C-alpha cells in the first residue's frame, strides 16, 4: 500500500511583530513543519514500519525555501518528497482551498496512493478544509479530525476514531481509498535521528511545476481576496502586574489570599 | 439568489448551541441580501428539532428524516440537493468537527468558494466580508468575495436566536445515493474519565506548552500542592502524554468554571478558551503580552513562568 502525506511549511510569528498591508512583516516570521502534518507523517511512517505501507511520499505546495522544512519528514522516515511550485504561485497572497485542492489532485492522480493523510488544519491560516475538499475532488472517501487509526486496514477499510467536541469520539469505518485528516495526539511524533537527517539529504525531492501536474495557471485566480490584517482589538480590562518576579508573584499571592484560595 | 441556507448541528439527541447561533448569523445576512433564511435539519428526531429551531427570523425549515446520527455523505448529498432546489446565495454551516467533515466537500462539489471558521460576517448583498483569525488568534483578517459562497461559522461568536418563529416546516425529499456512502458510523465513546474531575475543582493551576519539558511539570505540581489546587492543562501537554486526557481543558476536553483559573504558559487558542472562559477569575502568566489569553484574563503577569511560579510557590510554603 502506498501512502501520500500532504505537508505544509507554516509561518510562525514572534511575540512582537508588525503588520505591513495584509501581511506580517518578514523579519518577525519563522517557519516550521505544520504541527498536524508532523503527526500525519508519523502515522504513515508507523504504518510502514508495521509492514502495511510499502511507500510513504510527502507532497507540498511551496517555494524552494521550504525544502529544509519538508526534509524533516524525510528525516523521520518518509521515502521521498514531491514539491510543487511555479512562477505563477510566486506573488499569490492567498492560496485558497480550491487552488490547493486542484494542485494536490494533480499529484495524487499521478502517484495513485491508497491512503492520503493530511493535517486537520494549517497552524497559520487554519482553513481546516483542504483534506476533505481534496477527497471530494478525487472521489475518495474521507474522515475529518481522526485521532486513532487501526493499523490493520483489512478488507480495504480504515477503522478510525474521529475526535468530536467534549471528550466524545466517533467510531467510524472508512472505505479506501480515503483521505484522513489527522489530529494531534494520535501518536507521538519522533525526533529525527542524526542518521535520519543525513539520509534525508539523499532522498529524492522531486520539484514539479503546475504544468507538470496538469494544472492550468488560472488555478491561482481566487474568488477570495484578503483585504485587511490587524491586531484584534482587545476587549479586556486585564490588570497587568509589573515588577520583578517576586513582586508580581506577591501581587498574585495577595489576590489568591483575598479570594480565600490559599490555605 | 438572495436566500441563505443554514445547517443545524446535533449529536446524540441534542441540538448543539451553534444551531441557534447560526440562525442569528444567517438572519443578519438574509436581511442584507433581501432573501429568506432556510434551515436544514438532517437525521435524528428531526420534527422535534425543527420545533425547537423555529425561532424568530427563520423562514423555512427543511427536515430530512434519514438515519439517527451525523453521516457526512448524507449531509453532503442533502445540502447539495437543497442548494439545487433553493439556489441560495450563502450556505452556512457550523465550523464544528462535523461541519468540517462535510462543508469543504459541499463547496468543492458545487464549485463554490469556501471560507471557514469565520467570527464575523457582513454583506452588502453582493460582496461578503468575512472576519477570520490567523496565527492562533494573534491577528484578525478580512476576506472579501463576490457572489455565492459556502461559509462556516465559529461557535459562540453570534448570540443564540430566541423568540418563537412561524417558519414553514417541511420534509425535504432527499434522494440519498446509498452506494455513495463510504463511511459507516459504528458508535461513540466518551473518553477522559478517571479519578480526577477537573470540572469539580475550585482552583485550577493550568499548564501549557510554555513549560517546555515534562520534568518541568514539577514546579506546577509544587504550586498546586501549595495552593491545594488541581492541575489541568492545554492540549499539547496531553498530546505529549505528560498528563492524562482527563486533565485537558477545552473544546475536545472538559469545560471548567472554577473560582480561579491560573493559565501558565498557555496562549489562549480558541479551542482552549472554549473550555475555561466561564471561570470566575482568570490569571495569565505568559511572556507574550499579545497572547490571546490576555483578552480574557482578569489579571496577568507578563514574565517568565520559570521565575514567577517558584516565587509564588515559595510565598505559600
Ligand atoms: C479540532 C481541534 C480541537 C482542539 N481542542 C483543544 C482543546 O480541547 N484544548 C486545548 O487546549 N487545545 C485544543 N486544540 C489546540 C489549540 O488550537 C492550540 O494548539 C493549543 O491550545 C495550544 O496550547 P498552548 O497554549 O499550551 O500552546 P501554545 O499555543 O504553543 O502557547 C504556549 C504559550 O506559552 C508562552 N510561553 C512560552 N514560554 C514561556 C515562559 N517561559 N514563561 C511564560 N510563558 C511562556 C508563549 O508565549 C505562548 O503564549 C484543538 C485544536 C483543534 C484543531
Ligand atoms: N501548501 C500546502 N501544501 C501541501 N499540503 C497542504 C498545503 N496547505 C495545506 N495542506 C494540507 O492540508 C491540511 C489542512 O490545511 P488547511 O486546509 O490549509 O488548514 C494541512 O495540514 C496540510 O496537510
Automatic annotation (TrEMBL), chain A:
CDD domains associated with the record: ETF_beta (cd01714)
Single GO term (MF): electron transfer activity
Keywords: Electron transport, Transport
Electron transport keyword on record: yes
InterPro entries: ETF_a/b_N, ETF_b, ETF_beta_N, Rossmann-like_a/b/a_fold
Domain of life: Archaea
Keyword DNA repair part of the UniProt annotation: no
Electron transfer flavoprotein alpha/beta-subunit N-terminal domain: residues covered: 21-217
Protein family membership: Belongs to the ETF beta-subunit/FixA family.
Protein name, entry field: Electron transfer flavoprotein alpha/beta-subunit
Organism: Halobiforma nitratireducens JCM 10879
From TrEMBL, chain B:
Keywords noted in UniProt: FAD, Flavoprotein
CDD domains: ETF_alpha (cd01715)
Gene3D superfamilies in UniProt: HUPs (3.40.50.620), TPP-binding domain (3.40.50.1220)
A GO term for molecular function: electron transfer activity
Entry keyword annotation includes RNA-binding: no
A Pfam family the protein falls into: ETF_alpha
Start and end residues of each Electron transfer flavoprotein alpha/beta-subunit N-terminal domain: 4-185
GO biological process: fatty acid beta-oxidation using acyl-CoA dehydrogenase
Top-level taxon in the UniProt lineage: Archaea
Family designation: Belongs to the ETF alpha-subunit/FixB family.
Protein name per Swiss-Prot or TrEMBL: Electron transfer flavoprotein subunit alpha
Lineage: Archaea, Methanobacteriati, Methanobacteriota, Stenosarchaea group, Halobacteria
Amino acid at each position: 500500500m502506498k501512502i501520500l502525506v500532504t505537508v505544509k511549511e507554516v509561518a510562525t510569528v514572534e511575540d512582537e511583530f508588525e503588520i505591513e498591508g495584509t501581511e506580517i512583516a518578514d523579519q518577525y516570521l519563522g517557519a516550521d513543519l505544520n504541527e498536524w502534518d508532523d503527526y500525519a507523517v508519523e502515522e504513515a511512517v508507523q504504518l510502514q514500519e508495521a509492514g502495511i505501507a510499502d511507500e510513504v511520499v510527502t507532497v507540498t505546495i511551496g517555494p524552494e525555501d521550504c525544502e529544509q522544512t519538508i526534509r524533516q519528514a524525510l528525516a523521520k522516515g518518509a521515502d521521498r518528497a514531491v514539491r510543487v511550485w511555479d512562477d505563477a504561485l510566486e506573488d499569490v497572497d492567498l492560496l485558497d482551498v480550491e487552488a490547493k485542492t486542484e494542485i494536490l489532485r494533480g499529484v495524487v492522480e499521478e502517484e495513485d496512493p491508497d491512503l492520503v493523510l493530511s493535517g486537520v488544519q494549517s497552524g497559520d491560516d487554519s482553513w481546516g478544509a483542504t483534506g476533505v475538499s481534496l477527497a471530494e475532488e478525487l472521489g475518495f472517501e474521507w474522515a475529518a479530525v481522526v485521532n486513532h487509526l487501526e493499523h490493520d486496514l483489512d478488507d480495504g477499510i480504515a477503522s478510525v476514531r474521529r475526535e468530536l467536541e467534549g471528550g466524545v469520539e466517533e467510531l467510524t469505518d472508512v472505505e479506501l481509498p480515503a483521505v484522513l485528516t489527522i489530529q494531534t495526539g494520535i501518536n507521538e511524533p519522533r525526533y529525527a535521528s542524526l542518521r535520519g537527517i543525513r539520509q534525508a539529504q539523499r532522498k529524492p525531492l522531486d520539484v514539479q511545476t503546475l504544468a507538470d501536474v496538469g494544472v492550468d495557471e488560472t488555478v491561482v485566480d481566487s474568488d477570495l481576496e484578503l483585504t485587511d490584517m490587524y491586531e484584534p482589538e482587545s476587549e479586556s480590562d486585564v490588570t497587568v502586574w509589573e515588577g520583578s518576579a517576586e513582586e508580581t508573584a506577591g501581587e498574585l499571592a495577595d489576590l489568591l489570599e483575598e479570594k480565600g484560595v490559599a490555605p | 439568489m438572495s436566500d441563505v441556507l443554514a445547517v443545524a448541528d446535533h449529536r446524540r439527541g441534542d441540538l448543539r448551541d451553534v444551531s441557534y447561533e447560526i440562525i442569528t448569523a444567517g438572519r443578519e445576512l438574509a436581511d442584507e441580501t433581501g432573501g429568506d433564511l432556510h434551515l436544514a435539519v438532517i437525521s435524528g428526531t428531526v420534527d422535534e428539532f425543527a420545533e425547537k429551531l423555529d425561532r424568530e427570523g427563520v423562514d423555512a425549515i427543511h427536515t430530512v428524516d434519514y438515519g439517527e446520527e451525523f453521516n457526512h455523505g448524507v449531509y453532503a448529498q442533502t445540502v447539495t440537493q437543497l442548494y439545487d432546489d433553493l439556489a441560495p446565495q450563502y450556505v452556512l454551516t457550523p465550523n464544528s468537527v462535523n461541519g468540517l467533515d462535510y462543508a469543504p466537500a459541499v463547496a468543492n462539489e458545487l464549485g463554490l468558494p469556501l471560507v471557514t471558521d469565520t467570527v464575523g460576517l457582513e454583506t452588502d448583498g453582493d460582496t461578503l466580508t468575512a472576519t477570520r483569525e490567523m496565527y492562533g488568534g494573534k491577528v484578525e483578517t478580512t476576506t472579501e468575495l463576490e457572489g455565492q459562497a459556502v461559509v462556516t461559522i465559529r461557535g459562540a461568536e453570534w448570540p443564540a436566536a430566541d423568540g418563537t418563529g412561524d417558519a414553514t416546516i417541511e420534509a425535504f425529499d432527499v434522494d440519498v445515493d446509498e452506494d455513495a456512502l463510504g463511511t459507516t458510523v459504528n458508535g461513540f465513546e466518551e473518553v477522559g474519565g478517571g479519578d480526577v474531575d477537573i470540572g469539580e475543582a475550585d482552583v485550577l493551576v493550568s499548564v501549557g506548552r510554555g513549560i517546555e519539558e515534562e520534568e518541568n511539570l514539577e514546579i506546577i505540581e509544587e504550586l498546586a500542592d501549595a495552593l491545594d489546587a488541581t492541575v489541568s492543562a492545554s492540549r499539547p501537554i496531553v498530546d505529549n502524554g505528560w498528563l492524562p486526557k482527563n486533565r485537558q481543558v477545552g473544546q475536545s476536553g472538559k469545560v471548567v468554571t472554577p473560582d480561579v483559573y491560573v493559565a501558565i504558559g498557555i496562549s489562549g487558542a480558541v479551542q482552549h478558551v472554549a473550555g475555561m472562559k466561564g471561570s470566575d477569575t482568570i490569571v495569565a502568566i505568559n511572556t507574550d503580552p499579545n497572547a490571546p489569553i490576555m483578552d480574557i484574563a482578569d489579571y496577568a503577569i507578563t514574565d517568565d513562568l520559570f521565575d514567577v511560579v517558584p516565587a509564588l510557590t515559595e510565598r505559600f510554603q
